[in-house]
Structures are given as structure tokens and as C-alpha cells.
Amino acid sequence: MSYKLLLSGLLLGSVVTTSLAQEGKKGDVFIRNAQVLTVTNGLKENTDVWVKDGLIHRIGTQLEAPKGVPVIDASGKYLMPGIIDAHSHVALESINEASSPITAEVKMEDVVDPFAIGIYRALAGGTTVSHAMHGSANAIGGQNVTLKHRYGTRNPGELVMKEAPRTIKFALGENPIRVHGRSKNLQPRSRMGVEAVIRNGFEEALQYKRTWETWKQASEETKKRLAPPVFSSRMETLVDILEGEIIIHCHSYRADEIYMLIQVCKEYGIDKIVFSHVNEGFKVAPELAAHTMGASVFSDWWAYKFEVYYSTAYNAAILTKNGVITSINSDSAELIRHLYHEAAKTQRYGGLTDEEALALITINPARQLGIDRWVGSIEEGKQADLVLFNQHPLSIYAIPEMTWVDGVNYFNRAKDAADQRLKVDPEEILEPMYLHVNHNNCMRDVDFYFTGFGRNLFQHSH
Amino acid sequence: MKKLLPLLLLLFVSFHLFSQIDGEVIKPYKGDFLLQHARIFTVSNGVLEDTDLLIQNGKIAAIGKNLPKENHLLIDCTGKRIYPGFIDSGTSLGLVEVNSLPETQDYMELGKVTPQMQALTAVNPNAVAIPVTRVSGVTTVLTQPRGGYFPGTAALIQLNGYTPDQMDAGFRGVLMNFPSAAKAGNYDNRSAETIKKEAKKALDEIDALWEKATSYQAIQDKGGSVAYYPEMAQLAKVVTGEIPLLVEVNAAGDILRAIEWVKDKAVDPVFTGVAEGWKVAEKLAASEIPVITGPVLSLPSRQSDSYDASYTNASKLQQAGVKVAIRSQDSENVRNLPFHAGFAAAYGMGTEEALKAITLHPAEIFQVDDKLGSLEVGKSATLFLADGDPFEPKTQIEQVFIDGYKIPMTNRHIRLYQEFLDREMKPEN
């Protein structure tokens, strides 16, 4: 008995060790005398934060620094939780599987690129977690993956935040309509069709589920005679959505389409849904507050296409003041570098408090991704994803100086060398130059469908 | 009295009705305004504490302590700051309404050689983005066409007016895209040799055009008659220096070639873009060519660049001795210009120099510093009032004046906020 217990204990131990090894490095650090923006518990002045084994071990004043742990003097500087981007395409090799209005079976986890320089640049802007999403070509797109920016690994699996729940991309409005309706003459060709595609998908999934249940309940005799139903990973995924195992993150702009999907979700008993971009979310803020996990918005983007013409930069403020869980996301390899500045704009447009503005890029996106137990605030026991700023992060003069993920320092401005690429193409003679273009966005890989319309050749295409 | 009562009632009722009319319009209003007890950031003459500024006939009539009150509209500015209106040196504001809709894109004409195309012609004074922009303190922008060798003629505009002419701020510049020998992103699969060859060929074509324009001018100078040739008529003005040339150039190698090229052509140009200026800052400074750079909030141009290359570029150029102006290169979000300047300030430039880069320096580059760019008596009353540092996001821009017009501090974004902050007909549960 005791021998068996011992053995199982050893086995368990080895399993734990292996899984830790897969999750990547964990660090220790002692940050002394910082202005700590906890987000969930106010500003703690002149406070120490002791990180042990990748977790926030203690928060307090005049703590004694443990031996052998690197000490950072943060006097006069501001420490905040690592910034979380609820809508990103950084570190993805491809973004859109634009072959069908529903592609729920594809996984962004399969196309994570650990060499993407965008990961380092996001870290240099204090962003430690990003929600790497499928694009917006399809009404029901692929499954997203939540990444921790453990830059330096060559193993894509090490970037994945294993604790994060599954999420999936949905998309309403112009993009799925253009890609399928206009370019291929396939439903959806209008916002009516987008609703139909989603409803048909859900109904087909319910039928799929019933078919399998019927087959599973059949007698052994019947099973010998009849072949099992066809397995479909697409339908399996849709069933999981209906059963509440996957959080929907839906690309959306107009109030009518947002309202439509709220109604559809209510009807199918789905309450795990976050609306993304959601430029007209302010018009249905009370409905978003009542029925969803919130809205993830841009600070000020508008007018790059018709469905965002009637936007307002006050969106985040209106949503927040109506009780909607609100986050500010990037959808861009550029904006992900200064989400703290994007959050600060809500103080000009709507006068949000420091606490409200900081929540937009920390605890609120963490809630929307289902990872707020682990990250999104500075609390004992949470993962030590932290950023140190020279000034208050909502000031225009704020510069991120150091960034940690799981207590490991991945960015230090004082020691920053220019070229941070992990690999260089040996055949590259001329290094390409990029000018004022966002290469990582919702409509990448589907440019082909637009050439016929002469659209999106120069500007945003989110 | 009895006879008066119904009349009074009627007046009361009609007044009441009027007050119920939705969407009341506030127009820009011109008057004599005395701004009292402000902290005045003159840009050209330091910061003046507790000082008054008088606006009369669209101009700054006086700046001083305790200016006498006459029939002026008084605005108490205690605890507030006054700045000259910000100038964005590179936008397409007014030339496009909705970026993805070709029906609303008026920034590109057919052909590679269209220097005579006038941006001012296509500026829509009623573009929704104009009021969205100006309440941020950005009062003046260069709006410009794009595409080809010579995309057209850019115009400096004030963000108030009912016709393009009323918006005209008095500067025109012909744009040129300097042929690039850099590989254009990942999708550019030309060989290094082809890229070089094509850039050379393009520059040869531009040289040929230049020669043609020179001849066109020489023929006229010698009393000869020329056929109607609007492209050459406009380019000839560039050749003679009548209209300034704005050269868009970004890669370091291209910048060096462009410096040689303009020297050879003996023109006094302005360089725009200049994303990799930091690599050749000393040479740029020696050339004495002023630079309009930005967007500051943009990605570094190469994967191998330091993450902050675009944040520090303006500062490195300025510190090398280049005259720098900052642009947003935006259309609908030109309101972010102060934030572009703010990032440049944080990453080495300092607030004072960054402020010049969006006020006095562009005014000098565009040769309108007799009217714009600083707060001085006799200059245009194009300025704004703020409750703090206008680079800080939390600062509120409280009142904008453009050429003496008090600008309504509203726009569609603000009206939507007012309507939807506390919406009617909320859901029941």
C-alpha cells in the first residue's frame, strides 16, 4: 500500500516536473520600493514585490530581500501588471482560412511562429499576453490561442498559455460578406446571411450531436451492422461552443449585428461571448452589459471602412460607464507596442479614472480570455507578469523599462541591443523595408479577394 | 396687460418649443476675445505667466499683462494654457471620407506624372474628420495627394471654412516620390540587382522629365510659345524655385542619393518621411535640408532595427542639427498629432523641441511663419486653450480659435457620446 502510494507520488512528481519544463522558464526577482499599480487593489506607494518561482510571492513594505535573488531598485518608478491584448495576430504564420464561411476546425495553435520579432516589440511595450486570433474572413473562423510572450524560445508550444481556456473567432458584417458573398457568391451576401450561416451551423451541430448520441446509445448488435456517423472536427467544435466550453470572440462593428448575435446566443443558451472591435457597441451598451462577457475595442480607430464611419472615440468610456467589461486591444503589431497609451486616450475621451483606464488593458481582457485567475493584476499568488515604467503608464512621457513574464526578465531597456531577431535568413541579401503598414491584421491572407474591388490597397483592413 | 398675456404666453410656448429642437447648430463665431490670466506658450518667446492675449479681426492684437477691457468678450483663462494651433505637416485630411471606399478617395490621380493635380481642389470642407481633428488643437494641416513620381500639389489648409479657398493657409508644394532601391517588404521578390536597376531607371525617367521642364521654361524665358502642357507648366515652377519641392524618401541609401540628386538639380527641397534618417543624420544636417518625419507611432522600418527606431528618429535628427517637423500621415486620426510629438518628446526630443516640430518649424518650412506657428502680435489668432500639457492624453483641449473664429468644441464623436452615454429604452432585465 505505502509502496504503491510512494510510487504513484513519484510518478505524479515526474509528471508535474515534465509539465513545468514544457511551460517554460520561471524566475525570481525582488522589486524594491515601486509605485505599485495593482489594478484590483489601488495604488500601493513605495512597495516591494517579491517574485518567487514565477509567481508573485509577497507584496509589502520594507520586505527583506531574499539572498541570491536579483534586486531591482524601482524607487519613483511604476510597476503594473503585464499588459494583455485581447485581439492580436502577432506571432502567427497565417491568419485566415478563408475557404468556407465556417472553419471552426482550424487552430491558430498550429501556426504559432516563435521567431516573430513582433513578440519582442510587444514585450518592449509592456505586453506580456496576447490573444492570437484567426482572421475575420469567416462568420465562424478558427480557434484562437492565448500566448505568453516568452521570447527567445524556438519551441512554439512554449509560447502557449496552457491554462487559458479555448476561444474561437466569429466575424460579422463587411468582411465575411465580402470574402464569401461578393467574391464567391456564397452565403453570406448580407447581414441577414451572416445570421443564417451561424444559425445553420449551430443547428447542424445539434443534429450532429444527436446523431452521435443515438449511435452511442444503440445496441452492440446495431453498431456491428451500422457504420458510425462521420466524424467532423468542425462540428465537434461547434458542439463545444454550444456546451459552453469555448469563449466566442466576435469581430463586429455595427450595433444591429452585435444585437443580432446577442439574440442568437441567448436562444442557444450561450453566455460566453466577447465582442471585439465593436465600434458601435456604445449604442447597445446596456444589452452588452446584461448578456455578454464584454467588449474589446480600439481606442480611436474609425472611418477606415464604412461600417466604422459612425464610431466615437468615447466608445470605451460609454461602455465602461454602462457596466460593460471593456478592454482595449491592438489588432496590430504597432498598437500592441503602446496599449498603455491607447488606454490613456480614454481619459481624454470620456474622463475615465486611472484605475478604469488601466483595467482596460489588464484585468478586463484577462476576464474576457478567462485567465483572470492567473494574470491581469498584481496580487499574491498570481503569475509574475510585470512591467516597470519610468513614469505613470498613462502619461505620454511613460517609457516601459523592464518586462517580466513568469518572473523572467525578457526586456530591459538599459541592456537592449538593437537587433533582436532569433534567426536571420542566410540567403537574404537585401533586408526588406516596411513602411507604415500593418501586416498583422484581421484580413491578412485574403487580400486576393479584394483586388477585384480595388479596396484596402493602401490603408487599414481590419 | 390682459392683451399682453396671450402674447407673453405665446412667446413662452414658442421659446419652450425652440428649446426642444434637437441638433441645435453652433457655428464658428468671429469676434474680439480677450483671453485673461493665461499661461502663454509662445514657442518663439518662451512661456509667459498670468498674461492676457487679445484677439481682434482674426489676429493676435496684443499680448501683455492686464490688457485693458473694452467691448471684448472676456474668457477667464486662470490656470489654463494657450498654445499656437498645431500644424500637421503630412496628411490626407479632407481628401478621403471613408478609407476603403473608392467613391470617397480623392488623393490619387491616374498616371505617374501629375504634379499639376491640386489637393486643394478636392478638399471637402465638410469632411466629418475635420471637426473631429480640430478640437484636438490641430488647426492646420498639409493635405497631400499620393502615388507615382509626381503625385500632385499639396496644400496647407486651416481646418475652418466653407470653401477650399477660405481654408487655404497660403502654401503649395509639389510632391515627388524619390525612387527607392530598398526591398519593399516580404512580398517584394525582385532580386537585389533588379531592385537597383529599376530604381535607377525610375530616377533616369525623373531626370528626363526635369530636363523637359527646364526646356519648357527656357523656351518661355526666351519668348517662345509653348503648347498647353500642364504637367510641365507645374514642374517648371519647381525647377525655377517658384513652388517648393517636397521629396518623399525613407530608406537610408535613398536619402543619401536624394541629397546628391537635389544638389545636382539646385533646388531647395524639403524631405518627407525620412524613416531611416537616424542612420544618416549627420549627412542630412550638413545638407541643411529640412525634414518632415513621421508617423512617430509606427513600426521600425526593418526587422533588425531597435524596437524604438521610429520613436527616436525625430530626436536623433533634431540633435544632429536638422530642422524637424512631425507629421501623422493620417486622414481620420490626425487628432493624434500631439501624441506623435509626445512620443518623440519622451524618446529624447524633449517637450520644447517636440512642440516646435508641430508649430514653428512647419510654419517656417511652409513659409507661413509670418502668420502661423507661434503666439506673437500680428500673427493669425490660430490657437487653443487647454487645462494642461496638450501632449498628455488626459489634458482637455477647452477652446480652439482658427483665424480668430471661436470654433464649436463639438463633432460627431462628441455628439454620439452625449446621446449614448446614458441611453433611453434600456433592456428590462
Written overview of the protein:
The complex is a heterodimer of chains A (462) and B (429). Chain A contains 13 helices and 17 strands. Chain A is of the alpha/beta class and 462 residues long. The model of chain A is unreliable at 1-22 and 448-460 (pLDDT under 50). In chain A, strand 13, helix 10 (315-321) and strand 14 form a beta-alpha-beta unit. Chain A is globular and about 70 Å long. Chain B is globular, with a radius of gyration of 25 Å. The N and C termini of chain B lie far apart (54 Å). At the A-B interface, helix 2, helix 9, helix 10 and helix 11 of A face helix 10 and helix 13 of B.
Question: Any descriptors?
Answer:
heterodimer, A: 462 residues, alpha/beta, Urease, subunit C, domain 1, TIM Barrel, 8-stranded mixed beta sheet, 6-stranded mixed beta sheet, globular, B: 429 residues, 2 domains, 9-stranded mixed beta sheet
Total domains of chain B: 2
Number of strands of chain B: 17
**In whole angstroms, how far apart are the ends of chain B?**
54 Å
User: Class of the largest domain in chain B in CATH?
Assistant: Alpha Beta
The rounded Rg of chain A comes to 23 Å
The DSSP helix count of chain B reads: 13
What value does the Rg of chain B take, in angstroms? 25 Å
Coarse shape of chain B: globular
Q: Helical segment tally of chain A? A: 13
Content-based structural category of chain B: alpha/beta
* Architecture per CATH nomenclature, i.e. the level-2 architecture of the largest domain in chain B: Alpha-Beta Barrel
Unreliable spans of chain A: 1-22, 448-460
Number of strands of chain A: 17
Largest sheet of chain A: 8 strands, mixed
The structural domain count of chain A equals 2
Distance between the termini of chain A: 61 Å
| CATH homologous superfamily grouping of the largest domain in chain B | Metal-dependent hydrolases
